[in-house]
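Q: What structure does this chain adopt?
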Amino acid sequence: MAVKRALLVVDVQRDFCEGGALAASKTPSLIIPLSDFIEAVRENGELIVFTQDWHPPDHSSFKQNGGQWPLHCVAGSIGAELMPPIALLPGDLLVHKGIERSTEGYSAFEATGLAAQLHARGIESVAVCGIATEYCVRATIVDALKAQFKASLLIDLIRAVDCKGVLAVFTELQRAGVELLDSHAWLLRDPQLR
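A:
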């Protein structure tokens, strides 16, 4: 029997894309390939989970509140929206994170109940993509391992804030047991090997 798996699309939001308040690098080259890949995963009948930073205006990570980041992804704002054409459809899961003032909310698993939801659906393996490699993507995949999921990082569908640190993140994640592969290989993998 095939292992049930899910795709975690981390924080592909307007504020993290080109022109946004806290844009990662090279995001224009991410959006269309990612959108096409999401559609292919849907056609495969597999679960898609979208995460969104969903911060209160007084979030502790904002510079105006003593944090390190500019104001970004305030709950309900245009900047917090998923970057078109990427969109939530019926059957997808949506996870809001960083909703408490005092928590960073980097990980999709931090105070969201996501692990329990995935386990309840019989999910055993997750693939993670999105923004930003060295922050929310990294934290999400590390916590996926802690929650006892097999974890893959889709290296062609991630973008970093600073590309200089990506190799160190790759090395760390591989040592922790994360599989690094491209999205095409993950999608076409033999169901018995999932």
